[in-house]
Amino acid sequence: MSNSAAILLTTLNARYMHTAFGLRYLLANMGDLEAQSKIIEFTIQESPINIAEQLLSHNPKIIGFSVYIWNVIEVTKVVAILKQIAPEVNIILGGPEVSHAPDVPDVCDLADYVIAGPGEQSLPELCQELLAGKAPQDKFIESSLLPLEELQLPYRYYTEEDIRNRLIYVEASRGCPFKCEFCLSALDKTAKAFPLDAFLNEMALLLERGVRNFKFIDRTFNLKIVTSIQILEFFLERMTDDLYLHFEVVPDHLPDKLKEVLKRFPANSLQFEIGVQTFDPDIQNVISRKQNNDKTKENLNWLKENTGAHLHTDLIFGLPSDRLDNFADSFEQLIALKPHEIQLGILKRLRGAPLNRHNEPYQLRYNPEAPYNILTTKDIDFTTMQRVNRFARFWDMIGNSGRFTNTLPLILDDSPFNRFMQCSDALYQQAGSTWKIALKRLFELLYTIMVDDFEVDSELVKTHLRLDYDRAGIKGLPSYELNIAKLDKSAKSGIANKRQRAHLSH
Description:
CATH topology of the domain at 167-380: pyruvate-formate lyase- activating enzyme
CATH architecture of the domain at 167-380: Alpha-Beta Horseshoe
Structural class: alpha/beta
Distance between the termini: 90 Å
């Protein structure tokens, strides 16, 4: 059987467990070219030269790459190699990282064509022209948008391996009506839903094939409540012990009808990603974010108290007019609501995002290399930015990991942000890194910091740490427990010797 394919659709995922949802949409809509097309996925950890070798082994005439902020560096390396070895192969780029000319990355200079926006119609048209020897003159091609009801849905292109080992992404709608300037969805005119019956039919087929973890990528799942309820009811009717649904929701929009449905879901069957981003009304105004903070808090409290949903919340540091003190205030307000996770994101420059209009007034200075993280602003110096970067990393390891549920309240005490910043600074000073800290070593470092820096009673610290350590199932004792173990052993040995001497004296 031939390994050849005239058209390869490819990308480099961040991890193996991720699937390239966009490639499956493209393949589903290739029309007459589908038989000549093939999806091949890699990860950013793989060698660019090996990726090039695997791609060329299919003898392609066209290779299409999906380019994102997380893979643009690696894609650039692969394309550079391909153009050296096989310059006759047409390289087409698409994806959000290359869709906002003239603000495009260097990889666009290497490519033959760049499609801006959704490619379900534009890509097959371009491929037809190239295969017919009618190469278009324009390198940059604005995509032609198909109405959602005309799109072929991609779900049958998830393989059995995908279903067994990888995340299964689905979407009931596209777009977003909100205009938060840090997000590319701010460019959308509105949100549009896929025809519901066709979508639910596809979900039923995925369930039949064994899919039990559905990650909805809709930007605003709870925007149109009637549709949200119909989708939730569909899954409720098919609920199993292992069914798990992930949704991104607007935090201040939770009508009573939706609440009634959410209460019926079993514990640990729902995850809500809730982008709070900031509680500061001045920042919200600058970035055109409409968010009712009181309603957001009320809804988070309601979800925590009335559902078994896992609440994953987000904050962003580095927004225009952000400072350490008001970011700390947002963190304190959010942690008081006790979500299961607080993801602390550092602002990144997205090509095409309206936020870029603030770059000069607020002196937003970004890393010139992807992922284009913010380095300094008018109100935040580089040292402070680095401290918050480390805070975010250590918070993932300690606050979000679920490994320190007993110890975390002792660390945070009555001043969560300041205490954890102090802990983060001390961890970095002692470990010299935010990476590759073995879990056992992390327990030992936390003990030292809490006893020496926070001056908490050592026995109280050991009691809390011991509960978390036992749950973690780590082999061996941490160093702060070894002294006790040695003392215990020494005491037992002393008692045994005393008994032996007493026995001999008789």
